[in-house]
Design goal:
alpha/beta; Molybdenum Cofactor Biosythetic Enzyme, Chain A; Molybdopterin biosynthesis moea protein, domain 2; Molybdopterin biosynthesis moeA protein, domain 3; six-stranded mixed sheet; 8 helices; MoaB/Mog_dom; molybdenum cofactor biosynthesis; MoeA_linker/N
Length: about 425
C-alpha cells in the first residue's frame, strides 16, 4: 500500500499553546487505565493499588508483652513474693495466670489471661521460688493491646497509592499475601529518521546512533510501566502501520523527531493516515516547540522533538504526569527550588534549563549546568533536574523560586497518604 503526505496537512496550523495550557491538555487526554491484576507481595513494590486495602484483622492480633519480664495481676502485686508459675515465649499458646502468681514472659508473647501488666526483670527481685515487685505498675504497663496499631476494618492503604517498602511490611504483618494493582501502562516509543542506527551496528557515513529511543525507554520505564521501542526510519508506510498498531493496544504512543515541517518530517501526515488526530501542534517553550499532543486509536499521542534535551525535558514535563494519571495516581505537588543564577535573557517562551539540585541550608537550590544547545548530551550528565523558567519580561534574579522536575521520579510525590492513628 502506498501512502502520501498532503501539503494541505503539512500546512495546517492549530495554533501554538502556552506551556501551561499544553500541560493541562496533556492530562486531559488521559485517564486511569481500566485494567488491573493481582500480584504476590514479593512483586508488589512500586506498583499502584487498584483498590483500597482494609485490615482483615487486628494488629497486634492479641494482647502481648512489650518487653521481657513478668506478667502479673495488679491486685496481687502487694502480695510478696509472687510465685513464678510458668514461662510464655513468643509463639506459645496463650496461658492463664493463677492467683498470687507471676509468669515469666518474653517480648511479643501472648499475655496470659488474667494478667494486666508486665514488670521488666530489672524492676523485680527474685526471692526463693518467687519474685517481689518493688513498685506498683500501672494497668496495661508494657502491654501491647490487640488492635492498638491497626484495627480490624480500618483503611490501611488507599487506592492509587504507590506501594513502598513500609506498605509491604504492613501488608505482610496483616497476612495479606497478594494485592490488586493497576496493570502496567503500555507505552510505545517510535523513533524516526533514516539516519538512525542502533548502538553496536556499523555506522555508515552521515548516520548517527539512536540515543532518544533508549533514553526515553529508560526515562519512562518503571514497575508500573511497560515500554516497547522501535526505529522506523523515514518509511512513511511503515510509520503509518506502526502508529495504527500501537494505537490499538497501547495507552500512550510516543514518537521522536519528524514533527517539524521539512520534507522528511512525516509523523503528522502518518498520524492522520493512521486515524489519529492532533490537538496541540506546537508549544511556546524552548527547547521543544515542535511538541504535539493528540490521540491515535485508543491511545494518547505525544510527538516529541528530535534533539535529546528537547525530547528528555518534554518527557519529564508532559509524559511523566500523563503516566501518573494513567496509573490512577493524583497530580503531584510542584517541587520548588531557589534558582542560584541570575539570567536576564527572559523570553516570551517558557524555558527548560538543565540544573543541578542540591540541599543547602534546609532548602533546595538549583544551579544551571552545561553549555546552551538542545542537541548536547553532556549537560544531561551534569544535571539531575530541569528547571522551568516561565515566560516573562522581567529578568530572572538569583534566588528566585522555580518549579523543578527531578530526573529520577520521586514516587512519593502524589502518593495518597495513609490515615494516621
Amino acid at each position: 500500500m502506498t501512502f502520501h503526505v498532503t501539503e494541505a496537512f503539512r500546512s495546517v496550523t492549530l495554533g501554538m499553546r502556552s506551556f501551561e495550557a499544553a500541560r493541562d491538555k496533556a492530562l486531559r487526554l488521559v485517564g486511569p487505565v481500566d485494567r488491573s491484576e493481582t500480584v504476590p507481595l514479593d512483586l508488589a513494590l512500586g506498583r499502584v493499588l487498584a483498590e483500597t486495602v482494609v485490615a482483615p484483622r487486628d494488629l497486634p492480633a492479641f494482647d502481648q508483652a512489650a518487653m521481657d519480664g513478668y506478667a502479673v495481676r495488679l491486685a496481687d502485686v502487694a502480695t510478696a513474693p509472687l510465685r513464678i508459675d510458668g514461662v510464655t515465649r513468643a509463639g506459645d499458646a496463650p496461658a492463664r495466670l493463677a492467683p498470687n502468681c507471676a509468669h515469666r514472659i518474653m517480648t511479643g508473647a501472648s499475655l496470659p489471661a488474667g494478667a494486666d501488666a508486665v514488670i521488666p526483670y530489672e524492676q523485680a527481685t527474685i526471692v526463693g521460688e518467687g519474685v517481689a515487685i518493688a513498685d506498683t505498675p500501672r494497668s496495661g504497663g508494657n502491654v501491647r493491646r490487640a488492635g492498638e496499631d491497626i484495627a480490624r476494618g480500618q483503611t490501611v492503604l488507599p487506592k492509587g497509592r504507590v506501594l513502598a517498602w513500609p506498605d509491604i511490611a504492613a501488608l505482610a504483618a496483616l497476612g495479606i499475601g497478594a494485592v490488586r494493582v493497576v496493570a502496567p501502562v503500555r507505552i510505545a516509543v517510535l523513533t524516526t529518521g533514516a539516519e538512525l542506527r542502533d548502538a553496536g551496528e556499523t555506522l555508515p557515513m552521515a548516520a548517527i546512533y539512536d540515543s532518544n529511543g533508549p533514553m526515553l525507554a529508560a526515562l519512562l520505564t518503571g514497575r508500573s510501566v511497560e515500554v516497547t521501542k522501535a526505529t522506523v526510519g523515514d518509511d512513511y508506510g511503515a510509520l503509518v502501520e506502526r502508529l495504527a498498531a500501537a494505537g490499538s493496544h497501547c495507552d500512550l504512543v510516543i514518537t521522536s523527531a519528524g514533527m517539524s515541517s521539512g520534507d522528511r518530517d512525516l509523523v503528522r501526515g502518518a498520524l492522520a493516515a493512521a486515524g489519529g488526530a492532533i490537538a496541540v501542534s506546537a508549544v511556546s517553550m524552548k527547547p521543544g516547540k515542535p511538541l504535539a499532543l493528540g490521540t491515535i486509536g485508543r491511545a494518547a499521542f505525544v510527538g516529541l522533538p528530535g534533539n535529546p534535551q528537547a525530547a528528555a525535558f518534554s518527557a519529564l514535563a508532559f509524559i511523566r504526569p500523563m503516566i501518573a494519571a494513567l496509573s490512577g495516581r493524583p497530580p503531584s505537588a510542584p517541587i520548588m527550588a531557589r534558582y542560584m543564577f541570575a539570567d536576564g535573557r527572559r523570553t516570551e517562551k517558557t524555558e527548560l534549563i538543565p540544573v543541578r539540585l542540591e540541599a543547602e541550608s534546609e532548602q533546595l537550590v538549583a544551579r544551571r549546568v552545561g553549555q546552551p544547545g538542545s542537541h548536547r548530551l553532556m549537560p544531561l550528565l551534569a544535571a539531575n533536574a530541569v528547571a522551568i523558567v516561565p515566560a516573562a519580561d522581567t529578568p530572572l534574579e538569583d534566588g528566585d523560586r522555580l518549579e523543578v522536575l527531578p530526573f529520577h521520579d520521586p514516587e512519593f510525590q502524589g502518593a495518597p497518604p495513609c490515615p494516621a492513628r
